[in-house]
Write a structure and sequence with these properties.
Blueprint (H helix, E strand, L loop, with lengths): L4 E2 L5 E4 L6 H13 L3 E4 L5 E5 L2 E2 H7 L3 E4 L2 E2 L1 H6 L24 H10 L7 E4 L6 H9 L2 E6 L2 H12 L4 H8 L7 H6 L13 H21 L3 H26 L7 E4 L12 E6 L9 H4 L1 H6 L4 H4 L10 H22 E11 L2 E3 L2 E3 L1 H12 L2 E9 L9 E8 L2
Parallel strand pairs: 8-9, 8-11, 9-10, 11-12
Antiparallel strand pairs: 1-5, 2-4, 2-6, 3-4, 6-7, 12-16, 13-14, 15-16
Helix pairs in contact: 1-4, 4-5, 6-9, 7-10, 9-10, 14-15
Length: 403
C-alpha cells in the first residue's frame, strides 16, 4: 500500500515485555483508541489486532506500550535502547539525579496520547519534579511548560532537556582540568566560583547537577565524592549524546520546554492558554521533598527551614499540615482549571496515605476539589506502588475534563 493506512489483515501490535500490570494494559488500550485505532486482543493477550483502518506510521511513532507493529519496532522501543542504567524506564537523560517519586516515562508518553496532545500543543506540569513530563513532551514534539517551587527540580529538569543545545561546549569544558580540581571538589565548592567562567547558564547547570548527584551518592551510598562527580559528568555526557543520536536516527522534531521556578497556587500563565495538564502533586506527608533532598539543597546554598515554607505538603505539623495541604491543593487545582482550555483534559496522579495507622483519603479530596473547580471526572485507573516508605500502597491516575 502506498499510504500509512493499513487494514486488519496486515496490522498487529505486540506489547513490550515489561508490560505486567493492569493499569499498563488499560493505558495501552486507551492510547490506541485516542490515536484512532480500533482493536481486539488475540488469544495470548499480549498482541492486539487492528480492526479496520489505522495510521500505522502514527502508531509506530507515538505509542508507549507497544514494542512492534507488524514486526517493526516502535520509536519508543528504540528510545529505550539508549540507556546507561539497569532500569528500563531510565533511558536517555531520564536517569539524571535520583529523585524520589519519579514518573514512569512510559506512562507519561501514553497519557500524552490519551489526552490527545499533538505537536504544537502546550502541556503544563505545574509540579514538574524531575522533568519526566518535559522530556517526554520534547521527544514527541509537544510544547511543555514545567513549573516547580523547588530550585533543585527546576535545575534537574532544565539539564535533562536543555543540555543538548550546548553539547559541544559541555564536552569541551569536561576536558578542562581546572574547574574540577580535586581540592575544590573535596570542599564541595565547584558550584561557587567557577560558574561565571562557563559563559552559559546551561553549561554551568550541567556540571552543577553532576555535583548534586555526587552529593546524593555520598549521602545515600557512601561513595567517594570526587570519583562520583567525574563519573557522573561522563555518564551524563554520554546520555546527552544518546539523546542527540536517537533524535537524528528517528527523525524526531525536538521541542525545548519552558522550565520555570514558580508556585502552582499562583500560575504566571494566561487564562485558557494550555492544551492539557499532566501532573503529580506532592503526596501530602508521604514524602518530605525538602528533607529528602536536603544534601543537594544545602549544597546549592538554600536555608532548609526557610525554603520548606514554600513547599506544598511540607508546611505545618500534625493536623495543621493536612489543613494547609488541602488549602494549597484547592488553590492549585483552581489555577489549573483557569489556565486549561475548555474541552481539554487534566490528569492528576495521586494516592492515599496511611497516617498513624489510618488511611487518609487524599484521592477523594482531590476528586472533590476538582469537582468544586468545575472539572468533570472521566475515569480513574488504579496503579500499584511498591516501596514508597510503606505509607502508600497504590495511587490513581485520575482524568478530568474541562467542559
Amino acid at each position: 500500500m502506498s499510504t500509512t493506512l493499513q487494514t486488519e489483515r496486515t496490522l498487529s501490535l505486540s506489547l513490550h515485555p515489561n508490560v505486567q500490570f493492569i493499569y499498563e494494559l488499560a493505558l495501552a488500550r486507551l492510547e490506541l483508541e485516542a490515536l484512532g485505532a480500533e482493536w481486539e486482543p488475540t488469544d495470548d493477550l499480549r498482541t492486539f489486532r487492528l480492526v479496520g483502518e489505522a495510521d500505522c506510521q502514527l502508531l509506530k511513532r507515538r505509542t508507549a506500550y507497544f514494542q512492534s507493529i507488524n514486526g517493526d519496532f516502535t520509536d519508543y522501543h528504540c528510545l529505550q535502547r539508549y540507556n546507561r542504567t539497569r532500569s528500563v524506564n531510565q533511558y536517555l537523560t531520564h536517569w539524571i539525579y535520583p529523585y524520589k517519586g519519579k514518573f514512569h516515562p512510559q506512562m507519561i508518553r501514553a497519557l500524552l496520547n490519551v489526552i490527545g496532545a499533538r505537536p504544537g500543543d502546550t502541556v503544563l506540569d505545574p509540579f514538574i519534579g524531575s522533568g519526566t513530563t518535559a522530556l517526554e513532551c520534547q521527544l514527541l514534539g509537544i510544547k511543555c511548560i514545567g513549573i516547580d517551587v523547588s530550585p533543585l527540580c527546576v535545575l534537574i529538569s532544565r539539564v535533562k532537556t536543555e543540555s543538548l543545545q550546548v553539547l559541544e561546549a559541555i564536552e569541551r569544558q569536561s576536558k578542562v582540568a581546572a574547574p574540577f580540581a580535586t581540592r575544590d571538589l573535596e570542599q564541595g565548592i565547584l558550584i561557587k566560583e567557577p560558574i561565571p567562567h562557563y559563559g552559559d547558564e546551561r553549561i554551568a547547570n550541567f556540571f552543577i547537577v553532576a555535583e548534586m548527584v555526587a552529593h546524593s551518592d555520598r549521602a545515600r551510598r557512601r561513595k567517594d565524592f570526587v570519583s562520583s562527580f567525574h563519573a557522573n559528568v561522563q555518564r551524563m555526557l554520554l546520555s546527552v549524546k544518546d539523546l542527540k543520536e536517537a533524535s537524528e536516527a528517528l527523525g524526531l522534531q525536538l521541542v525545548y520546554p519552558v522550565i520555570q521556578k514558580g508556585d502552582a497556587r499562583c500560575l504566571n500563565l494566561a487564562e485558557e492558554s494550555v492544551d492539557g495538564v499532566i501532573t503529580s502533586p506532592p503526596y501530602s506527608i508521604a514524602l518530605n521533598y525538602v528533607e529528602n533532598d536536603a544534601h543537594a539543597l544545602s549544597a546549592l546554598g538554600y536555608d532548609l527551614c526557610r525554603i520548606k515554607e514554600e513547599f506544598i505538603g511540607v508546611r505545618g505539623s500534625g493536623q495543621e499540615k493536612f489543613r494547609m495541604y488541602e488549602q494549597d491543593m484547592r488553590e492549585s487545582i483552581r489555577e489549573i482549571y483557569r489556565v486549561l482550555k475548555p474541552g481539554k483534559h487534566c490528569v492528576i496522579i495521586i494516592g492515599n496515605i496511611t497516617y498513624q495507622n489510618e488511611e487518609v483519603d487524599t484521592t477523594g479530596m482531590v476528586r472533590r476539589l476538582c469537582s468544586d473547580a468545575g472539572f468533570e471526572e472521566v475515569r480513574a485507573i488504579e496503579k500499584i506502588i511498591f516501596g514508597l516508605y510503606n505509607v502508600m500502597q497504590k495511587d490513581y491516575i485520575m482524568m478530568f475534563w474541562k467542559p
